[in-house]
Amino acid sequence: MARSKSIVAVACVLMAAVAPAAALARNGAVRQALTANARGDCSIGGAGPQSVGFVILNRADDHVSAVISLRGAPANGRWQVELDQTPLMGCSSFDGFITTNARGDGHAVVSDPFQPGNTGAFVRLDALNDAAQAGGIIASEGTELSR
Fold first, then answer.
1. What pLDDT, on the 0 to 100 scale, is given for residue 24?
2. How many of the other CB atoms lie within 10 Å of CB of 59?
3. How far apart are CA 82 and CA 94, in angstroms?
4. Distance from CA of residue 46 to its chain's centroid?
5. Is 73 among the domain residues?
6. What is the 3-state secondary structure (H, E, C) of the chain?
7. Measured between alpha carbons, how far is 80 from 3 in angstroms, rounded to an integer?
8. Using an 8 Å Cβ cutoff, are 143 and 32 in contact?
9. Which domain holds residue 127?
């Protein structure tokens, strides 16, 4: 009986220590699917029929960032990366490139100042080579990031 109380006490202490750390680690980050052949518009982002990875969008202080992970996208594709803010900016930024390997995997991290009047963000990847054309526009649906 004493042993089970000790185990419960240790578990409670660990949960109390881990819960605040987990809350701080999130820091408002939102994970969304990236979809190929996305349909949508520049005020809200896009959605499509085929998931090809994910993006983690985060606003910290006066910046918004996106950690992009393509998985199973067209092999050897190259895309222009846009980290777009809504509702005022829409599809207007150029933030870099992402290229996939022979398996269709690729990663990129981009960041921009969070512009006054905007409340959210989404990622849009525009195909730049023939290999990437098979995936068309790749996009996230967008999320609220205002505080």
1. 31
2. 23
3. 5
4. 13
5. yes
6. CHHHHHHHHHHHHHHHHHHHHHHHHHCCCEEEEEEECCEEECCCEEECCEEEEEEEEEEECCEEEEEEEECCCCCCCEEEEEEEEECCCCCCCCCEEEECCCCCCEEEEEEEECCCCCCEEEEEEEECCHHHHCCCCEECCCEECCC
7. 58
8. yes
9. 29-144
CATH (domain of 125): 2.60.40.200
Round to whole Å and give the CA distance between 121 and 140: 9
pLDDT greater than 80 at residue 1: no
Residue-wise pLDDT tens digits, 2-15: 444 443 343 333 33
CA 64 to centroid of chain Cα atoms: 11
Cβ-Cβ contacts under 8 Å for 34 (sequence gap 6 or more)? 51, 52, 53, 54, 55, 68, 69, 70, 123, 125, 138, 139, 140
Amino acid at 51: S
Residue 9 within a domain: no
Place of tokens 């905007």: 118
Q: Give the global pTM.
A: 0.77
